[in-house]
TrEMBL record:
Coarse class of the protein's main subcellular location: membrane
UniProt-recorded name of the protein: Probable membrane transporter protein
Gene Ontology CC terms: plasma membrane
Transmembrane segments: 50-67, 74-94, 132-160, 172-190, 196-217, 224-244
Alphabetical UniProt keywords: Cell membrane, Membrane, Transmembrane, Transmembrane helix
Source species taxonomy: Bacteria, Pseudomonadati, Thermodesulfobacteriota, Desulfuromonadia, Geobacterales
Keyword Transmembrane helix: yes
Pfam families reported for this sequence: TauE
Keyword Transmembrane in annotation: yes
Amino acid sequence: MTLPFLSLLLATVLVVAVLYSSVGHGGASGYIATLALFSVAPAAFKPTALVLNLLVAGVATCVFFRAGHFSWRLLWPFALTSVPCSFVGGYLVLPDHVYKPLVGLVLVASAVRLSCHTQREDTAVKPPPTPVALLVGALLGLLSGLTGVGGGIFLSPLLLLFKWGRVREISAVAAVFILVNSAAGLLGHLSSLQQIPYFVPLLAFAALLGGVIGSYLGSARLPVVGIVKALSMVLMVAGVKMLLV
């Protein structure tokens, strides 16, 4: 990996981290999209995304905890099944002909999810049915471990759609959900004697810096709609590339 190539990759990861953290997400799908667009080997996608997601989600978790928005009642049934399933997904290694289409579909679904992004403050909320939450958590956890995404980008719209929590509460829960699933998936990955790519520490620094900047800018009410529309376009391009190449 040449220095100019690595420098451009670092700058892109920094920008992705800033944009995602400003709208309350860890950014795993954005990091995977970046690696795909830079033609990095698919084997590096999962460990790289999990490490970067872990750092950025950790920053978001601290911010939301300090702001008092976190709800353990809303998180626990999803996390109870997602964490072990994420570990299993991280442990498993899918062949390229399965992994690439799966990641492509996740990126396209993430793009569609972001293109429909809204900011609503629901006043009437209800707790999710525990059996449903356990099932959803298991599915999202397995998907998280297999692909390297944290699962929050899929959990948050479900919580909004079914009015299981308020916007800030959902953002806090999604951040912690991403954090614990990324940690479990990374542990599963390492447990299977797989390695982390040598360039990840540099990307981790860029992502952490971007997460801090994005969290600060997000609190200043940046134009979220324009940001997520641009992100959705990048994800769509990368997803289609993974499906076709």
